[in-house]
Amino acid sequence: MQIKFYIIFFISMKISAHDDGAYSHSQNDARRNHAESMEKLDQNIRLNKLNIPRTHNSGAIYDGFSGDIANTQTLTIEQQLSAGIRFMDIRLRDMGNGLFIYQDLVYQNLSFSDVLSSASVFLDDNPSETIEMRVQEKHTPSNNTQGFKATVKSYTESYPI
Q1: How far lies 118's CA from each of 2, 18, 42, 115, in Å?
Q2: Rg, Å, the chain Cα set
Q3: pLDDT one-digit tens code per residue, 103-123
C-alpha cells in the first residue's frame, strides 16, 4: 500500500511542477535572439567561470500519450540555441545502433543526428559561440552490435563540430 502512495505522490508532484511559474510555456520566448551571446563576453574569461544558460531535458518537446508530463520544453533545439541556451541536456535511447531522444518512455520524434545537425548549423552561423552537451543513456538499449559510447563516438565523428 505504501508503494502505491509513493507512486501516486511522485506522479502528482511531477504533474504539478509544470504549473510552477519558473517554467516558461511560451513560444514567444523564441523571439528573443541571443544567438551571439558569447561573442559579447570578455575573451579572457575561462569557460568554467561562466554561468552557462541551460535547459533540462532539452529535446523533450513532444507530449506523446502522457499529456504535459513528458514535455519539458516549448522551444525546439534551434529556438533554444537562438534564445541563448548553450548547455543541452540530451537523453538518449540506443536502438539498433541509432540514438534517439527520449523523455522517460516517450520518444520525442528527434534523433541525436537531428540535435548534432542543429548544433552544427548554429555554430557555422555563429562561430563565436560554444555549445556544451551532457549526453546520457536514459532508456533500455535494444538490438545493438556496439556499446553506447561507441555509438555516440560514431555520431560525433560524423558531425565535426
Answers
A1: 45, 26, 26, 5
A2: 17
A3: 888 899 999 999 999 999 999
Q: How is 33-88 classified by DSSP, letter by letter?
A: --TTTGGGS-TTS-GGGS---B-SSTT----TTSTTSS---SS-HHHHHHTT--EE
The Cα–Cα gap between 90 and 140 comes to 15
As given in the structure block, the three cell numbers for residue 126 are 555563429
Mind listing the pLDDT tens digit for each residue in 51-98? 999 999 999 988 876 666 778 898 999 999 999 999 999 999 999 999
> For the chain, how far is it from start to end, CA to CA, in angstroms?
51
Mean pLDDT score of the chain: 84
What domain range is 41 assigned to? Answer: 2-158
**Distance separating alpha carbons of residues 94 and 145, to the nearest angstrom:** 10
Q: Are 72 and 57 in contact (CB under 8 A)?
A: yes
CATH of the domain at 121: 3.20.20.190
Torsion of CA 69, 25, 118, 86, to 10 degrees: -100
Domain count, the chain: 1
